[in-house]
């Protein structure tokens, strides 16, 4: 199956659902609370091989979902969020690999989250949904992987919060992860990133429509969610990227308007991103998922990242981007140092890019080069054992 | 699970990678210095040719540090584990004596603080293998003496303004450095590499060799650095 072909699309795909943790077997959460039943929305691409040794789990970021590649309908405006990397002849080559992605718990794209119906009340959970962590998300995914009958994942991979989950997978289930590719991520969220999340959450909760999270079926806190997303987008770009994309360009006008409507292209961009996000994302999920990221600290409980990573058995490919100031390269280096001190095989590279944190979705060519070879080599290693 | 122990050394692969010896004849001598099954760290490993030969031929467990993103991609394509790092920042990530060999091939002369990195290499490696162009080579001396110009040779092909070689040394300087900094020289290979086949130099190497390889280790009880 190594014949070279033009990279293609996975075509029309559909989201599947898996429900587990029915009471009394609820999922035990890190907070001490329990959650169940849980439904995970997931998509798969490619074919599982006979010994189920070609399975790759992709883990999505804050606003992502299970829909990684292809389209649900032929007339969908856009394909899945990492379509550039997943498909026949692409980095995660669906001619070779069986690719899985599931929406995280706490999300709003088909998996159980605050907008789901609480079986105890028959109404949406709202803020009665328990706070979940990255490790809870991974524990839920583990049920899905078991359900699919997979004993070991060839690779876990993700950017940003997806990278956090990849690291968590490697530590929580070391025997189930052969390769891990954490991209543009960190072993513990920085104070700066927590601060941006906090401002976003404040914007949502200060929205008069928020109604303590019980806004379902009524006017939603769209102004707050919109601001949260605008702040987010500022942190995903970089000074250079903003200069390149917008500069000081004016939007649909040749002279400043001397009032407070949108003047600059960068304003228009943020407005657009905010508006689009409000259409597709639930404000409560934004609260829960940012909180899960805030709590992420792989160096706990000991406080020593090297010690906590000692359990990992995977080989790692750690990637950062030079202009990413939300998850700067030093955070990836911290992971690499801890892995190396444990004698774990790790490759680290910082990719030159001016696209900021968003680079993990944009630097397709470089990522493809690295990932194709890294995965190929893993197969080679497999055959040699 | 050391990767190298699970790699079958495919003889065709090995022959392919050995072609690098045509361009870098000194690699042959460096490979010969390495005991089979060792842990090797190559500082400034480039595209990983030397590491790949060591992995296949000596079943070494290899890793590299490299600054160039493109070179790292080439290493990943060879199935090597490499780390993107700046050698001028030292080897703080590595524990004392944690690898069998630290290798520096034609690298120390481009560093800002070669003395610092050599001592770091001797701290991390049980042994170090350091290779360098010899500035004391007679052709360099003649060009400087008779033409009054910065020497340009096959081993030092740059103009004064575009050379990456900012800390060139002679064999004599390097031997003195090792003596003063508590490094024992265990083995030396002096070569003329500018004409192939490359040959070893026994007589007056500081004058007749354009290239030198030193295998060294930190002197017992020495903490210099």
Notes on the structure:
The complex is a heterodimer of chains A (385) and B (225). With 385 residues, chain A is α/β, with parallel strands linked by helices. Chain A folds into two domains: 16-189 and 298-384, Alpha/Beta hydrolase fold, catalytic domain (Rossmann fold, 3-Layer(aba) Sandwich); 194-289, Rna Polymerase Sigma Factor, Chain: A. Helices cover 35% and strands 16% of the residues of chain A. Chain A is built from eleven helices and 14 strands. Chain A has helices at 134-147, 161-172, 191-205, 222-236, 239-245, 265-280, 283-295, 305-309, 329-341, 359-362, 364-384; strands at residues 16-20, 27-28, 34-35, 38-45, 55-59, 86-87, 92-93, 98-102, 117-118, 123-124, 153-159, 177-183, 315-321, 346-351. In chain A, strand 11 (153-159), helix 2 (161-172) and strand 12 (177-183) form a beta-alpha-beta unit. In chain A, helix 1 crosses helix 2 (161-172), helix 3 (191-205) packs antiparallel against helix 4 and helix 4 (222-236) crosses helix 6. The longest helix of chain A is centred in the C-terminal third of the chain and has 21 residues, at 364-384. The model of chain A is unreliable at 1-5 (pLDDT under 50). Chain B has a single domain (3-135, 165-217), classed as Vaccinia Virus protein VP39 (Rossmann fold, 3-Layer(aba) Sandwich). Chain B contains ten helices and eight strands. An eight-stranded mixed β-sheet of chain B has the order 3-2-1-4-5-8-6-7, sandwiched between helices. In chain B, helix 2 (11-18) packs antiparallel against helix 5. Residues 1-8 of chain B have low confidence and may be disordered.
């Amino acid at each position: 199956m190594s014949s070279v072909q033009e990279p293609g699309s996975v075509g029309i795909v559909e989201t599947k659902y898996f429900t587990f943790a029915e009471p009394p077997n609820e999922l035990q959460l890190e907070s001490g609370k329990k959650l169940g039943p849980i439904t995970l929305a997931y998509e798969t691409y490619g074919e599982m091989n006979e010994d189920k040794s070609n399975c790759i789990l992709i883990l999505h970021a804050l606003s992502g979902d299970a829909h990684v590649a292809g389209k649900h309908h032929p007339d969908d405006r856009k394909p899945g969020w990492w379509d550039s990397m997943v498909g026949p002849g692409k980095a995660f080559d669906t001619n070779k690999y069986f690719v899985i992605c599931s929406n995280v718990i706490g999300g709003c794209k088909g998996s159980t989250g605050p907008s789901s119906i609480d079986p105890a009340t028959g109404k949406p959970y709202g803020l009665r949904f328990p706070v979940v962590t990255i490790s809870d998300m991974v524990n839920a995914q583990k049920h899905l992987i078991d359900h699919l009958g997979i004993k070991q994942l060839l690779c876990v991979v993700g950017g940003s919060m997806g990278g956090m989950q990849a690291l968590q997978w490697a530590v929580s289930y070391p025997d189930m992860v052969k390769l891990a590719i954490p991209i543009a991520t960190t072993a513990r969220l920085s104070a700066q990133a927590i601060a941006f999340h906090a401002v976003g959450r404040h914007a949502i909760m200060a929205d008069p429509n928020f109604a303590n999270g019980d806004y379902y079926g009524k006017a939603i806190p769209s102004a707050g969610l919109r601001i949260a997303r605008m702040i987010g987008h500022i942190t995903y770009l970089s000074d250079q990227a903003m200069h390149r994309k917008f500069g000081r360009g004016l939007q649909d006008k040749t002279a400043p308007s001397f009032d407070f409507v949108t003047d600059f292209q960068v304003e228009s961009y943020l407005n657009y991103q905010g508006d689009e996000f409000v259409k597709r994302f639930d404000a409560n999920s934004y609260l829960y998922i940012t909180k899960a990221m805030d709590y992420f600290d792989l160096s706990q409980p000991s406080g020593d990242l090297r010690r906590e990573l000692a359990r990992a058995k995977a080989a790692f490919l750690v990637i950062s981007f030079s202009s990413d100031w939300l998850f700067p390269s030093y955070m990836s280096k911290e992971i690499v140092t801890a892995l190396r001190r444990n004698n774990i095989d790790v490759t680290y590279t910082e990719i030159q890019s001016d696209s900021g944190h968003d680079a993990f979705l944009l630097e397709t060519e470089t990522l493809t080069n690295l990932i194709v070879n890294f995965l190929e080599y893993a197969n080679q290693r497999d055959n040699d054992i | 699970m050391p990767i190298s122990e699970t790699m079958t050394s495919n003889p065709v692969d090995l022959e392919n990678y050995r072609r690098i010896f045509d361009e870098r004849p000194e690699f042959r001598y460096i490979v010969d210095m390495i005991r089979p099954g060792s842990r090797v760290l190559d500082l400034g490993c480039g595209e990983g040719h030397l590491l790949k030969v060591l992995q296949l031929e000596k079943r070494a467990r290899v890793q590299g540090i490299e600054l160039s993103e493109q070179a790292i991609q080439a290493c990943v394509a060879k199935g090597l584990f490499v780390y993107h790092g700046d050698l001028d920042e030292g080897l703080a990530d590595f524990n004392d004596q944690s690898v069998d060999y630290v290798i520096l091939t034609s690298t120390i002369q481009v560093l800002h603080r070669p003395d610092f990195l050599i001592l770091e290499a001797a701290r991390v490696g049980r042994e170090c293998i350091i290779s360098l162009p010899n500035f004391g080579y007679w052709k360099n001396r003649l060009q400087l003496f008779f033409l009054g110009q910065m020497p340009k040779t096959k081993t030092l092909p740059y103009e004064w303004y575009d050379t990456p070689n900012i800390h060139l040394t002679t064999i004599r300087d390097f031997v003195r450095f090792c003596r003063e900094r508590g490094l024992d020289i265990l083995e030396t290979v002096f070569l003329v590499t500018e004409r192939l086949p490359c040959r070893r130099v026994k007589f007056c190497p500081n004058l007749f060799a354009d290239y030198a390889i030193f295998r060294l280790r930190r002197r017992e009880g020495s903490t210099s650095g």
